[in-house]
Design a protein that fits this description.
This protein has 324 residues and is of the alpha+beta class. 34% of the residues lie in helices and 18% in strands. Strands 1-2-3-4-5 form a 5-stranded antiparallel β-sheet. It has a 5-stranded antiparallel β-sheet with strand order 6-7-8-9-10, with no helix packed on it.
Length: 324
């Protein structure tokens, strides 16, 4: 409907992953240094639909033909130099394609989602009777994770960092489709993931009769409450498609940092609720809350705080940033 690439200032470069890189226009407007390393990216889904991510200041927005242009996308277009009146005309024009949107969304949800089966790293299944495994068991116990929740693998006989890690399998319909290694030392990175782009951790935790799915960023958050985890601070379209298969209310509980709070807007675009409970300032995520308050009180606080009101969410975000 409109050529977003032609609106971008400066050079553009197409990457091997399908992203059109450019110097992001959002950074300086959001109080960051101007981007001179082409950290902005736009990726198309079909001819008209696209998503935009800034890998510098973490701003994101999207456009879907058949929907109005939302506030974040409107702001992005203004930063690109587009007049407000023109954006309003494009927004109205987009609504003329609503029937096409309904057909496309229905078709996507009905598509069979598959992930490749994979092998876990060689190691030993976590065993409470094995004295060499006690350090891993203590770690899970301290984080309030049942040691029999998943077939955790440990590698105490490996050399280097690998002898100090827990391998957490990624399951989808009972098949292993990836994993993450959580290293127990203080070095960076803490996690190394083997994950397909559209995968959502904890999908197999969900029961057919449940009416709610609690969505978190981290896998330990999800394991604490039998929820789902994005394993990142964005929600891509493939993950949204997978979650749509659950056919239930989705409640996002983001981490309490800038990147986590930024995905609330994306959650609302997808029709999710957002929960920002009144936890103490030292609680940064769901797992912290479970450790501090217990599993049931944490779940109740999440459900009681869930809302789709943008005003309430923005007010709560400001309170969290101020440390209230």
């Amino acid at each position: 409907m409109f050529d977003v690439l032609s609106l971008l200032p400066g050079k553009k470069k197409l990457t091997g992953g399908g992203w059109h890189s450019f110097n992001a226009v959002c950074c300086s407007h959001r109080g960051h240094r101007p981007d001179i390393r082409m950290r902005g990216g736009i990726k198309f889904e079909g001819q008209n639909n696209w998503i935009m991510n800034c890998f510098n200041c973490r701003f994101s927005c999207s456009f879907t033909l058949g929907r109005t242009i939302n506030e974040k996308t409107r702001q992005f277009l203004v930063w690109c130099g587009v007049d407000i009146e023109q954006i309003q005309l494009w927004s109205l024009e987009s609504l003329k394609y609503k029937d096409l949107l309904d057909f496309t969304v229905t078709k996507k949800v009905r598509e069979t989602i598959k992930f490749k089966t994979k092998e876990l790293p060689e190691g030993e299944l976590l065993d409470a009777a094995n004295s060499k495994h006690q350090v891993y068991i203590d770690y899970l116990n301290n984080r309030k994770i049942p040691i029999d929740l998943l077939p955790f693998v440990v590698t105490p006989n490996d050399e280097g960092r690998n002898n100090n890690r827990i391998v957490i399998p990624y399951l989808y319909k009972k098949n292993i489709v990836g994993h993450t290694s959580r290293y127990l030392d203080s070095r960076i990175p803490k996690y190394i993931n083997d994950q397909e782009a559209g995968y959502v951790f904890g999908y197999d935790f969900q029961k057919p009769d449940w009416q709610v799915c609690i969505l978190t960023e981290g896998i330990f958050d999800a394991m604490s409450i039998n929820g789902c985890a994005l394993t990142r601070n964005t929600i891509n379209d493939e993950q949204a498609q997978l979650l749509a298969q659950l056919n239930r209310r989705i409640i996002l509980v983001p981490d309490r940092d800038t990147a986590g709070l930024d995905i609330c807007e994306r959650a609302l675009e997808l029709g999710y609720s957002v929960s920002l409970p009144n936890w103490s300032i030292d609680v940064k995520d769901v797992n912290d809350a479970v450790i501090k308050y217990g599993r049931l009180p944490t779940l109740l606080s999440i459900l009681q705080s869930a809302t789709m009101s943008k005003i309430k969410i923005e007010l709560r975000k400001r309170q969290i940033v101020k440390g209230i």
